[in-house]
Amino acid sequence: MIYGIGTDVCDIRRIADTLQRRGERFAEKVLGPHEIEVFRERRARVDARGIAYLATRFSAKEAFSKAIGLGLRMPMTWRDCEIVKAASGKPEIRLHGELKAWFEAKGLQAHVSVSDETDYATSFVVVETRGAGPA
C-alpha cells in the first residue's frame, strides 16, 4: 500500500550559485558520507557534473521528505538520507541514524527516480508499506 508520494524539481543554476556563495560547506550540509565522495570525484573531473549530482541529490531528498510526510523535521535530516547507486545503476535510498530507525519501525520501503538536464534536476519518490507490491 502506498504510504506517500513526493516529487521535486530543482534549478541546477540555483545550486551552482549557492555553491559559489557558500563554497563546499553547502554540499557538506546536504550530502551524506558516500555522496560527498562521489560529488568531489565528479566535480574534480567536470565541475558541471558535480553540480548536477548535488542538484539531483538535493531534489531526491526533498521528494523523499514529502513522501514520508515530515518535510525537513526530525528525524528527517539531509545527511541521514543518501541517494546511492545500486550495481545495476538504479538509484536507491540509504538511510542512517534516527531516520533509519523511524522508517524501519513504520515498516516502509522507498523507490526513487532522479533525472537531470542542463538547467533542471527532478526526482520522484514513492514510499510504501513493506510487503506491498504486485500480487
TrEMBL record:
Boundaries of every 4'-phosphopantetheinyl transferase domain copy: 4-120
Q: Which family does it belong to?
A: Belongs to the P-Pant transferase superfamily. AcpS family.
- The name on file for this protein is Holo-[acyl-carrier-protein] synthase
Q: Where does Mg(2+) bind?
A: 8, 62
Q: What is its main location?
A: cytoplasm
Matching SUPFAM superfamilies: 4'-phosphopantetheinyl transferase (SSF56214)
* Natural source organism: Roseateles subflavus
Which EC numbers characterise this protein's activity in its record? 2.7.8.7
Recorded superkingdom: Bacteria
**Pfam families referenced in this protein's UniProt entry, alphabetically:** ACPS
> Has UniProt tagged this entry with the keyword Magnesium?
yes
Record's keyword terms, sorted: Cytoplasm, Fatty acid biosynthesis, Fatty acid metabolism, Lipid biosynthesis, Lipid metabolism, Magnesium, Metal-binding, Transferase
Q: What does this protein do?
A: Transfers the 4'-phosphopantetheine moiety from coenzyme A to a Ser of acyl-carrier-protein.
Catalyses which reaction(s) = apo-[ACP] + CoA = holo-[ACP] + adenosine 3',5'-bisphosphate + H(+)
The cofactors named for this UniProt entry are: Mg(2+)
* Localization of this protein: Cytoplasm
**One MF term from GO for this chain?**
holo-[acyl-carrier-protein] synthase activity
